Amino acid sequence: MRILGSIVTLLLLAIPGLPAATFSGSAEVREKLAEAVISAEEKQIQILEDLIETGDPFISKVLTAWRRGELFLIEHEGSTIPALLENADSKEPVKVFILESGEVLKDKSGKELTVIPSRQKTAETTRTLRTQFKKTIDLLGISDPDPKLREKAAFKLGSRADPEYFAALMDRAAIEKNPRVLKKLKEGMAISQLSIGDEKQKVEAAAKLGELRSIGALDRLKKIVSEQEKLAENEKNNDLISEATRSIKTIEDYKGWVDRGETVFRGINYGAVLLIVSLGLAITFGLMGVINMAHGEMIAIGGYSAYVMQKWMTGLYGDEALQWYFLLAIPFAFLTAATAGLLLERSVIRFLYRRPLESLLATWAVSMILQQCFRLYFGAANVQVNSPDWLIGSVSLGDMAFNYNRLFVIVFAAIIVLGTWFLMSKTPLGLSIRAVMQNRDMAASIGIRASRVRIVTFAFGSGLAGLAGCFLSQIDNVGPEVGSKYIIDSFMVVVSGGVGNLFGTVTAALGIGTADRMLEAWSDSPVVGKVMVLSTIIVFLQVRPGGLFAAKSRSLD
Amino acid sequence: MSKLPEFILTVEDVNKSFDGFKAISELNFYMDKGELRTIIGPNGAGKSTFLDLITGKIKSDSGKIIFGEENHDLTKLREYEINRLGIARKFQTPSVYEEHTVYDNIMLSLPESRGVFSSIFFRLDSVARDRIAEILKTIRLQDMERVIAGTLSHGQKQWLEIGMLLVQQPRLLLVDEPAAGMSDDETRRTGELLLSLEGKHSIIVIEHDMEFVRQIARKVTVLHQGKVLKEGSMDSVQSDPTVAEVYLGRKHSTVA
Amino acid sequence: MQFVESRFPRSHLITLAVLAFVTLAIVPLAYSNGIIANHDLQRYGKYLCWAVLATSLNLLWGYTGLLCLGQCVFFGLGGYAFGMYLMLNVGVDPVYKTSLPDFMDFLGYTELPPHWKPFENLGFAMAAVICVPGVMALIFGFLAFRSRITGVYFAIMTQALTFVAWILFLRNEFTFGGNNGFTDFKKILGANLYSHPHTSTNGKELLFFILSALLLIATISLMISLTRTRFGKVQRAIRDSENRVRFSGYCTENFKLFIFTLAGIIAGIAGALWLPQAGGINGDVFFPRESLWVVVWVAVGGRGTIWGPVIGAILINALKSWAQSEYENTWILILGGIFLVIVIFLPGGIASLGKKLPKWFRICRDWIEAFMATRKKKVDPKEGGEGTS
After folding, report:
1. C156 in a domain, yes or no?
2. CB contact, 8 Å: B224 with chain C?
3. B131 assigned to some structural domain
């Protein structure tokens, strides 16, 4: 029963808006807390000390509420009942949850009582009490069921350099099973030692921190070294200086690797986005000889589609729609952009198939018109697109953090590439597309509906751009000019990857994406990164003018 | 191994592959100065590719191509440099300057003043004008000076292109399927023209039209799968069984 | 039959004379009599500079088939080069009390960076206006043409070039004013650049207008002459069949490089003359869209013709300033739509209207005639209907 209660609690705790303390906490803890509320200060301190041992996170929540003035003393039938309210800020009457039992306050007839928060008395706090709150909450942290919270608490406690906290850390370290938390506990202890230990212990601690590769301790170590340098010769602890310096170097080297790893990850992520964008462009350009300068606006359409879907769903279903609207937004973005592409093809592109330079100009005019339309309809400023909770946060490998939304994009890009490859090489439609690409007239004369194939292909390419825009809405801002940001880079991808070649596009996108991000990190400036990438491509085209995987021809032109 | 002085063109051990397909394979070819050589062969034999290699449109994978008494190594030169040595090519599909007049097409092919600055200050003198007029007469377009080349008929365009070659007074002419798309009369006249050039110029002609080949053939080279299959007079080539097999398929297969 | 070409056809000569007359005689006269205000004169001057810019692109695109989507790079470089001179001649500024340009004071410079110093000299600045865009064009062109990048790839690369320039010039550390750029010019060779008060004529506005007009006349004359030479014909041959030109013994890379550099220099000079009339310059001149506007001017006016781009540049910019004030939100839509229609249905631009109009007229007339004929047939007495033959 208690386990079920905890699970339900945890689930409910995830949904914002409900008071934290509604259903959780063991009976014993509740009892103690209720007692604490109405006791004298000395007793309160004692109870709170004792409660640390229990490790029940419920305590932290109650104490936080107490500190914030959200723990109420409800007068009912002559007695004062410590309780939490459904909503502490409400102007309307709300339900009362008795602290001790966790149940809703009812009157004799069994009907739920409601009170208005502003009319109720709140439990008071003194400074001493608040200090104890802090201590209790901090120390509870290292026994929290969630390992991530334990890690955080361990580090925090360590930074306080308090001998009592040190003792708590040591105690916890003895029983801790999670290796990551254990590492953080050791770090915490070592950091404490740097301040509270004797000279020998400080040296040991400095060495230990290097061993543990503690990035968080870097600042402390540096501070120690500079403090030591300022001392007179005979006061210096030379061992400490050398250990600390050594550890600093070890940690910084390690940090360098971590940063590089994260940069590569971000590079792959950017490459994945570029890939989805460029795939559509490569298809329309490579397969049809049409340069579509409005491709960037297809991206914007995708981004705005996500925004529209968000507004629509939250309008219909409220805020909880924020969690799943994105799943609908994906196909919606694809379809809207594909439709836009279709309209574009029928109205403008079809006149321009044999005139590549004119198609460039015409689509650019369309792009300008579309951008202005976006500005007129959605406003010139960026629109807010929210991420669902399941895309927020990250998974960690060692000290490297990999964001969920970025991982999602990478995975999706891979799926799209595979899907496109499958479509192109294994389906009859793909065969028709490739035939029309190579020789439209021949394809038409053997019965392929060339213009229909063209429409489908163009729509598909635009739809891909829409998908990219939808993903971009999660990692970047959506505004009228979002397309132009990515369009030049994706042109570069298509040009260097070799037109009409899927594998080349993939290689080029990932290559350019990673190179761009890595150069940006290395040179500390997005500008230099871009310049170098572009220069490299220009030089690269010297050697292979047709791109990575160019098509060779036997005719004169 | 250096070439003997009489050869205008020496091709030795030349190879060229396209993505795994071996278009030219260990090709050896020797041509005398002033000779009119005809090259024939089935489709895909490598005839046009051979011309591409000579003119520098394509780079060979290996081998030597030596031109003239000065022993120019053509594999190391760019297209315009090869042309300036005196090698001119007529392409399979007529490539003239479609937007320019007939007159300008010829004028642009004059071998003088082909640099940037020299072409800015170039002036047509009477010598050049006479030469252009003469060429126009030879190719029977003297009344169509101001006509835009793009509007000419296919046969006229072929002749215009030939005219563009002649005005350069090239030492080696490479003519790719000159009779294609021409009427019998035009074909015959083309043959006569080529024969009249023999001796003063060296000429390689690629052709499919056997009537035409018979008209102009001196020495004939048969190419097959990128190699020289047989060389000799028209009769010896025609009666050769391997050539027949290559052109017509195996003796025992049923060919319609 | 002899075939003689005149170096300078009469029609062009007449148009040039008209242009000269209007810009060198009528406008200055109107200006000194107060009919044209200072800011209007500057606007006309800008139109003329843009016409030169369009002509430079025409030289590349209309006549050689090289679509450059980054012509504003050279325009901007010329502008910046001249701008550097002007920035160093604002005198000691009242706020920061130094002779350094404002933005340098703002960024904490204590002395002029070395590459700025020579620009105190007008002669050097003028040389830079020619050399900087020229060298840039030379390098980029060399790299591009040597690897035989043409057509759409070339166009994309030029867009990338202008994009890079945009990013670079917007950065404050690039020492060119960052995203504020150069503004607030005051003097040239000691004399006031702009008239004080606005209604007087003691500034150099007229000078720059006339210089712009002269530049346009000179550029057009150059175009006319060049296209009539053999060089001009080779140019157009390269546009139509570059391979054939190569196989006729021309090093086409050299030709393209020469034209590209020449066009770049012309654009640079235009940028330099444009600058004082615009009053300022910043990194946005390199924004990719600006170069695309130039293409619009040339395409609408008629590429491959001498006067088309001039008409296009002036017309579109006049239209733009009118539409921008009348239709703040939708002028882009209008202009974009017009451009779209022209690109699809009138690829030769306005200049080709001369040929197209009669054709369209004939088509309409034929259609009407055919329609009338079928109507007549319908009421033919042979069929038993009312007779109205």
Report:
1. yes
2. no
3. no
The C-alpha of A375 sits at a distance from chain C's nearest C-alpha, in angstroms, of: 9
DSSP string for residues in C299-363: HHH-TTSSSHHHHHHHHHHHHHHHHHHH-TTTHHHHHHHHHHHHHHH-TT-GGGHHHHHHHHHHH
Element at B94 (helix H, strand E): none
Peptide bond into C28 cis (omega under 30): no
CB contact under 8 A, A552 and B19: yes
**Range with lowest mean pLDDT among A439-448, B196-205, C95-104:** C95-104
C-alpha angle with apex A250: A248 to A256, nearest 5 degrees?
100
pLDDT in tens, B114-159: 888 888 888 888 999 999 999 999 888 888 889 999 899 888 888 8
Chain B with chain C: Cβ pairs closer than 8 A: 84
What pLDDT, in 10s, does the model give residues A123-163?
Answer: 888 888 888 888 888 888 777 777 777 888 888 888 877 78
Domain count, chain A: 3
C372 occurs within a structural domain: no
Q: How confident is the model at residue A237 (pLDDT cuts 50, 70, 90)?
A: confident
Q: Which helix (H) or strand (E) holds A449?
A: none
Contact at CB, A362 and C340, closer than 8 angstroms: yes
Q: What angle do CA B104, B106, B110 make, to 5 degrees?
A: 110
Q: Between chains, do B111 and C249 touch, taking CB under 8 Å as contact?
A: yes
Using the 3D structure, point to which of A129, A162, A177 is the last residue of a domain: A129
Of all residues in chain A, the one with the smallest CA distance to C297 is A361
What CATH number has the domain bearing residue B223?
Answer: 3.40.50.300
For residue A468, being part of any structural domain is answered with yes
Whether residue C138 is contained in a domain is answered as yes
Residues A175 and A271 in one domain: no
Q: Is residue A241 in some structural domain?
A: no
Q: Residue C250: which domain range?
A: 10-345
Residues of A in contact with C289 (CB under 8 A): 368
Specify whether A194 is located in the same domain as A91.
Answer: no
pLDDT in tens, B26-41: 889 999 888 899 998 8
Q: A555 lies in a domain?
A: no
Q: How many domains does chain B have?
A: 1
Pick the closest to residue A465 from A308, A273, A329 (CA basis): A273
Are A118 and A223 members of one domain? no
Domain, as residue range, for A10 = 2-129
Are A83 and A153 within one domain?
no
Sequence-distant (≥ 6) Cβ neighbours of residue A312 within 8 angstroms? A325
Residue C385 lies in a domain: no
Same domain, A18 and A104: yes
Torsion of CA A280, A282, A288, A293, to 10 degrees: 70
Asked whether residue B87 is assigned to any structural domain, the reply reads yes
Interface touch B95/A556, C-beta < 8 Å: yes
Q: E strands along A151-224, which residues?
A: none
Q: Determine the Cα angle at A275 with ends A270 and A281, to 5°.
A: 130
The values of phi and psi at residue A178, to 5°, are -75, 120
Residues of chain C with pLDDT under 50: 1-6, 384-389
Return all residues near C268 (Cβ < 8 A) that are at least 6 apart: C74, C75, C77, C78, C81, C129, C130, C132, C133, C134
Burial of A443 from C-beta contacts in 10 A (0-12 / 13-18 / 19+): buried
A contact test, residue of C159, C171, C173, C340 with most A CBs within 10 A:
C340
Reported ipTM: 0.85
Name the residue range of residue B82's domain: 7-95+170-248
- Cα–Cα distance, A243 to A225 (Å, whole number): 10
What is the rounded CA–CA span in Å between residue C87 and residue C115?
14
In a domain, residue B44? The reply is yes
Compare A2 and A181 and report the one with higher pLDDT: A181
| B151 part of a folded domain | no
